[in-house]
Design goal:
about 140 residues, four-stranded antiparallel sheet, two-stranded antiparallel sheet, 3 helices, about 25% helix, flat
Length: about 140
């Protein structure tokens, strides 16, 4: 049984004193949370499994019938949040004072989180990342 409120409502951050809007009524044993991004809400919801999935829906019609799947539920992976939205929000808040360091493996290289035998490969990858731009950015913007 969910211990969350019976009727969650989401106010738009741009209009904190504006009218609140019901996104979707609560359903027993289900949780969802909302991230506002422009004219859509991103919805992290566990309606298809305990590890959550990600959907999006227009702000103008946010009900469950409008939810479009973005990332499906995967039994082996817990979707804990949506960092892309946080990245977008940080960029908006900090503007030119925001820099994201996000090295990625080359195309075709996959590194499962439980690949303990490949830890030396991960360390080598991390040590090869050029941090010059990040260091210069921090010294220029934050000192």
């Amino acid at each position: 049984m969910s211990d969350q409120p019976e009727r969650p409502e989401e106010g738009l951050a741009a209009e904190p004193l504006g009218e609140w809007q019901l996104v979707a009524p609560r359903v027993s044993e289900q949780e969802y949370d909302i991230e506002h991004h422009g004219d859509v809400f991103y919805v992290r919801v566990n309606d298809r499994g305990r590890n959550f999935r990600l959907a999006k829906t227009p702000v103008a019609s946010p009900g469950r019938e409008s939810w479009t799947e973005v990332v499906p539920h995967r039994p082996e992976v817990m979707l804990e949040g949506v960092s892309g939205i946080a990245d977008y929000q940080c960029g908006k808040l900090l503007g030119g004072r925001y820099h994201r360091l996000a090295p990625v493996f080359p195309p075709g290289v996959r590194m499962p989180l439980d690949a303990v035998a490949r830890v030396p490969e991960m360390i080598a990858f991390a040590e090869a990342v050029d941090l010059t731009a990040a260091t210069e950015f921090l010294e220029r913007e934050w000192t």
